[in-house]
């Protein structure tokens, strides 16, 4: 019985102690609980903020692609193909027939011609990779954080918004450009790239390059020695008599990327309003600025071979057998750095060419400031053409003191750019006013070449015309040499 009373007493004492303890510790416990709750809420808010930012970045990128009309050409993943070389002077690639079947399955096709982004993927890319895009923050809660599915981004976003998208593309691709398609006859798993497209992709020196090899060439060398096999594979070039039709395979003709090439369908690429083309130094030396009417030059590159113009691309042009390379410096509209140049009025301006370290002191090549469009078919006329000074041509040897002064660079009428070629391969080039210059001035230009003491005459080909000193007092215009360009050959007299 004493044990039961002792237990009862102990229970009562313990109950009194428990009733007193919460009074002493309740304030500290509440403070700790409040701190823990605030910390949990802070962590939850940070996770929610990070989630909203990630969702906003993803939605922003997708919206940019919706505005641009980006469409993948595969149901499973982005389409990547192996690059092979094909003939062609422009931006027309060759694709497998399965791509045509996939594209024609769409009920509506919003754009003609079909435009593609052609890029070499960065194997280390993880979205988002651009520092600017990583720091992009969603609007505040009281602002509208719903991104429109229509073309609101195209109309309302400023240029910096598009620059963020372009910056991300520069991280996604080691190099990329744009083009259209020439035919759907390529072998499955391969994409045919013409030389201009391959060169645009290989501007990044980190991209491995290779040359394709004709399988038939490999088969014919199986029974040869190892050295002969390696030699055949290293050449791998097509015969001179083989067809050069655009889109046909050009085994080993030029380097192509040795990495997978992603092909993406772009359905809403903007049509161009203007562009700036900058001639290369070699083009200037070849007499680009001496062309009075550049319409034929541009028609060759922009009408016959180009469907798109991307900043950084090289446009190859030809005029009277002379090749001129022009770099695309800028395009308008500029938000994607690429425009369509088919069925649009495109105003072209020329940028300043690179400095020529070999030109004479005081001489300067000044590009034209005005190039006026001639209508819908991309015709252009140089309204105030600048001309190339004589020292800008390769292997030109002209003593300005001994020759008639060249006409001003701003003069556009009655100017003929003359090139004289000697039997030893030397060349002399100069501009003449055909009304003032005489055949004696033409002969004086020829004498700047190393011709020795032998007598000579100047001749032209197709048709053949002969010019001699006996008629030296005749003006060039009277002698039948008119404004434009003329090439004379030095023909020594026995």
Task: Tell me what you see in this structure.
The chain has 3 domains: 215 residues, no CATH class; 97 residues, Vcp-like ATPase, Chain A, domain 2; 100 residues, Phosphatidylinositol 3-kinase Catalytic Subunit, Chain A, domain 1 (Ubiquitin-like (UB roll)), CATH 3.10.20. The protein is 29% helix and 23% strand. The chain has 11 helices and 22 strands. The strands form 6 sheets. Strands 1, 2, 3, 4, 5, 6 and 9 form a 7-stranded mixed beta sheet that branches. A hairpin with a 5-residue loop joins strand 18 and strand 19. It is elongated and about 155 Å long.
Rounded to the nearest angstrom, the distance between the terminal CA atoms is: 154 Å
How many beta strands in the DSSP annotation?
22
Which structural category fits the helices and strands?
alpha+beta
Q: Indicate the overall shape.
A: elongated
Largest sheet: 7 strands, mixed
Q: Please state roughly what percent of the residues sit in beta strands, choosing from under 5%, 5-15%, 15-25%, 25-35%, 35-45% or over 45%.
A: 15-25%
Residue stretches low in confidence (pLDDT < 50, at least 5 long) are 144-158, 229-241, 358-401
The total domain count is: 3
Rg (C-alpha, Å)? 36 Å
Mean pLDDT across every amino acid position: 78
Figure out the total of helices.
Answer: 11
Query: How much helicity do the residues have?
Result: 25-40%
């Amino acid at each position: 019985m004493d044990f039961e009373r002792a237990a009862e007493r102990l229970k009562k004492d313990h109950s009194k102690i428990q009733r007193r303890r919460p009074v002493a510790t309740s304030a500290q416990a509440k403070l700790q609980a409040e701190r823990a709750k605030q910390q949990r809420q802070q962590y939850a808010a940070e996770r929610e903020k990070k989630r909203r930012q990630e969702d906003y970045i993803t939605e922003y990128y997708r919206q940019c692609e919706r505005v641009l009309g980006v469409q993948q050409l595969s149901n499973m993943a982005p389409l990547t193909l192996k690059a092979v070389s094909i003939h062609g002077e422009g931006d027309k690639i060759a694709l497998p027939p399965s791509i045509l079947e996939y594209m024609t399955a769409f009920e509506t096709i919003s754009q003609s011609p079909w435009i593609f982004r052609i890029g070499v993927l960065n194997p280390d890319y993880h979205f988002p990779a651009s520092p600017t895009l990583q720091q992009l923050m969603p609007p505040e809660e009281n602002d509208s954080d719903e991104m429109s599915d229509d073309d609101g981004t195209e109309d309302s976003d400023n240029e910096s918004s598009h620059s963020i998208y372009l910056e991300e593309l520069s991280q996604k691709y080691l190099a990329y450009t744009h083009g259209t398609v020439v035919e759907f006859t390529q072998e499955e798993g391969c994409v045919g790239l013409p030389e201009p497209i391959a060169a645009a992709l290989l501007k990044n020196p980190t991209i491995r390059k290779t040359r394709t090899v004709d399988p038939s060439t490999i088969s014919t060398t199986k029974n040869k020695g190892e050295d002969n096999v390696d030699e055949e594979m290293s050449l791998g070039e097509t015969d001179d008599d083989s067809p050069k039709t655009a889109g046909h395979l050009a085994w080993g003709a030029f380097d192509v990327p040795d990495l997978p090439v992603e092909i993406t369908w772009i359905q809403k690429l903007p049509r161009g309003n203007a562009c700036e083309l900058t001639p290369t130094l070699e083009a200037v030396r070849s007499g680009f600025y001496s062309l009075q009417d550049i319409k034929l030059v541009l028609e060759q590159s922009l009408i016959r071979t180009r469907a798109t113009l991307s900043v950084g691309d090289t446009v190859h042009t030809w005029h009277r057998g002379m090749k001129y390379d022009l770099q695309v410096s800028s395009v308008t509209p500029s938000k994607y750095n690429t425009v369509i140049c088919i069925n649009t009025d495109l105003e072209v301006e020329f940028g300043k060419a690179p400095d020529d370290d070999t030109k004479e002191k005081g001489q300067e090549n000044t590009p034209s400031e005005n190039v006026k469009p001639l209508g819908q078919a991309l015709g252009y006329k140089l309204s105030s053409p600048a001309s190339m000074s004589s020292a800008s041509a390769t292997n030109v040897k002209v003593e300005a003191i001994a020759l008639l002064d060249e006409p001003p660079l701003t003069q556009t009428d009655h100017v003929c750019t003359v090139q004289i070629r000697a039997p030893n391969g030397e060349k002399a080039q100069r501009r003449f006013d055909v009304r003032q210059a005489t055949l004696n001035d033409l002969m004086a230009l020829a004498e700047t070449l190393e011709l020795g003491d032998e007598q000579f005459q100047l001749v032209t080909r197709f048709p053949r015309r002969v010019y001699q000193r006996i008629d030296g007092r005749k003006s060039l215009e009277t002698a039948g040499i008119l404004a434009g360009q003329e090439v004379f050959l030095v023909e020594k007299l026995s």
